[in-house]
Design goal:
Length: 500
Amino acid sequence: HDPDRFVPGGPSCALLWSALGVQRPRLDDCIPVLRKLGSDPYSVAAEAILIDVYRHIEPLVSRADRRKRERLRSLPVGTANGWSSARPVFHVHDRELRVELAAARPDLRFWLPPCDSFALPNVTAALGLTICAPIITVQRDEAAAEQGEAERERFRRCVDHLSNELARNDPATRDRLEVSWSELRHLTLSVHAEPFPVLVSDPRLSDGPIRVRMRAVMQVDPLRLDVTEAALPHRESCGRAIASLFREDARRRVEAEWVASWVASADVATEMMQMASDEELAKALEDSAAALSLQSGGKIQVSQPASRAGSKLKPRRLKRDHGEIGAVVIVEGSPPKPVGRPAKPLADTKPTPPSNTTTSGRAAPIEYDTRDLEQRGWEVLQQVLSSSEVPVLTDFRRRHQVGADGVINWTTFVELKATGRGPQSAIEMSASEFERAKERGLDFILALVSGLEEGERTEVKLILDPANRCTVKPIGSVRLVGLADAPGVLVPISDPGSNH
């Protein structure tokens, strides 16, 4: 935006510019430009400069030192009320919600990013913004629910058309849907006559809920779309809501495709294509359940742990033996949830001093160690799998770089996680294990063996394709959470002598 200070780019003159000391703009060159923008009115011309500069510094920010980061945090940013160098400035990702909150709370400053902020994660973090993730509550409206039923057929035709167009022309985008296409097709639909009241709750913004009106809101659990009739064909409203169910890098494309699909679905019914990826998981779960059910009823044979410990308290022991394999159940589960929610705000008042009292209770000693627990889990898992048509599970627990504890015919990889008590809600995987899980997809099984202690109910849950079916939280290693909600195959194992 200042051509007098720039030379032509490209490889032809690169050596000349290097010899003359002509450099590409550095972060220190860009910060004064961004600061100077704040002295002029916020305008479209200013947004154009912001877009260019933000995109240029996006890869540079991650390498900035502390001094430069402090300068970035005090830069002026565009808000609904013009430029602001003061903080806090709040950032709400949803565009419609951001505009409505700014109108409802003019005393607060909301960032107006000049372009899609999802493409600028480093810049967004460096500007010292307060990231908000409000909880939106839409009240049930019977009239809107009835109108939703009237519009349901058209809505489903549009979903079918969208699915087919992406399957034909952009399958990568189609696969970025974070719920199933069937769930999207059958979501709860409420169509309102006009913008509807919404309660927005976020402790960063207000002690109580903020009331606004919106044209489209997508809620995930359970899956529900509230939308005005006029907003159904609009990119910025219904298109934005539908796109929120896709991964961030696919949303802009989906918004536009929704509008085209709505027009195309006006009169012509479309049969949704069933792609292999849609059916693959369901079929794999059914096959695994059928195979495991073939020879249920066999008693589990286990070895006894070598470690022991004495105590007056009743010790925690592994069961001496296990009963029969029960009826296998398919757990449909729910899709993985997005991660990266902002941390809770720091306390702004002095907390209550901790109590000086101490607990007198003691934890019961454990008469086994991690090796005993893993070995018991492995023995149970081996016999669960050997009672089906699944070939022999080969033990690779003491081999490195396999990325799994066991392998079946070097085609299906199995990772064991065992616990003495209730079913695991989260587990950690090493980098090699997670890489193998991503590589193999449905040919990777996460086997959760739980309830191995006395007094606990033993279960085996097999989760196929855990890298894509569970919520992933990177923490140096990889942490899979929400395992209770992940789709899988559940195999209950009774205690000896029990009736179930």
